[in-house]
Design brief:
Number of domains: 2
CATH superfamily of the largest domain: Mago nashi
CATH architecture of the largest domain: 2-Layer Sandwich
Helix content: 10-25%
Number of strands: 19
Oligomer: single chain
Structural class: mainly beta
Number of helices: 3
Order of helices and strands: HEEEEHEEHEEEEEEEEEEEEE
Shape: elongated
Distance between the termini: 64 Å
CATH topology of the largest domain: Mago nashi protein
Largest sheet: 7 strands, antiparallel
CATH class of the largest domain: Alpha Beta
Strand content: 35-45%
């Protein structure tokens, strides 16, 4: 039975009349599921022409620095051949593929070489893990971050101004799309949003940091934007380069002698990444951390 390394060797020995006939997809998913949509998902694609694509549903660690969106790029031919060598030497054929447990992250890796499909899936990698597999995983992660620099669409949430008086937070926020095509979002206060969904402020009392002492656990609270669920369910487009403004207000619970710290988040999960054929934001984005 032909293994992945021999298929790559045969591919490289094929007389060249154009791009090499191969492609791959690497999908990582984790967290709770909303219908068929996972909370966290990244999908990286690469083919023999050097074309790269990356989709990110939610930033790792809810970071505001790695914005959710769809990205693309291109690898030079020499970089493609170097990656094929890494893939051939990875020993991923020896990886024991197994169905992940419901709470495990899901990893799907598919390689198509001259019509032959090689598919692998795993949850948490269990030892002994071949060194080549770890190197391949690191290289796929690097390519996802560096080889797809051009956003087709992406969304970033930022805080323009913020006030806090008499237990009430008011903030002027904006969502910016730095890509080249529009993306629909649900109105932050539209009907159907609530619970884990919608625009919220995750906050808590600032921690006291003392040398040699372990700080107390951060106790997070959530304040949903006033008026959530009171407007009709609808979507609006975030156009490239045109900030989408949001006026946020919410009452906070309790007191914080050391002051508050927190960040804003917008969560909206659907069963599909499109609505009536149009791309729609289906994930989560977060602002930078603020203190007040």
């Amino acid at each position: 039975m032909e293994n992945l390394a021999s298929a790559i060797a045969a591919l490289r020995a094929t007389p060249r009349g154009g791009p090499l006939d191969w492609a791959l997809e690497y999908v990582q998913r984790s967290g709770k599921r909303h219908a068929s949509t996972y909370e966290w998902e990244t999908r990286f694609e690469l083919d023999g022409t050097g074309s790269t694509k990356l989709f990110r549903r939610r930033g790792p660690g809810d970071s505001h620095q790695l914005a959710p969106g769809s990205y693309r790029g291109n690898l030079a031919e020499n970089d493609l051949l170097v990656f094929l060598d890494t893939l051939a030497a990875s020993g991923i054929d020896q990886l024991r593929s197994e169905t992940p447990n419901p709470r495990d992250p899901v990893n799907l890796f598919r390689v198509l070489i001259q019509g032959r499909l090689f598919a692998f899936s795993w949850g948490v990698l269990k030892p002994p893990v071949p060194l080549g597999v770890l190197q391949l995983r690191n290289e796929l992660s690097r390519l996802g971050k560096e080889a797809c620099p051009i956003p087709e669409w992406n969304l970033a949430l930022s805080v323009e101004s913020m006030t806090f008086e008499h237990g009430l937070v008011k903030a002027r926020l904006r969502i910016v799309n730095t890509g080249s095509r529009e993306i629909l979002i649900a109105l932050p206060a539209s009907g159907g949003l609530g619970g884990e969904f919608g625009l919220h402020l995750k906050y808590g009392e600032a921690q006291l940091i003392e040398e040699g002492a372990t700080p107390a656990p951060f106790e997070a609270k959530y304040a949903l934007m006033d008026g959530t669920g009171q407007l009709p369910s609808r979507f609006e487009a975030v156009q490239p380069g045109i900030p989408y403004p949001i006026e946020f207000s919410a009452a906070l619970e309790g007191t914080a002698p050391r002051g508050w710290v927190g960040r804003f988040g917008f969560l909206h999960y659907l069963a599909s990444d499109t609505v009536a054929g149009k791309p729609v934001f289906n994930g989560a984005l977060f602002s930078e951390e603020k203190s007040w």
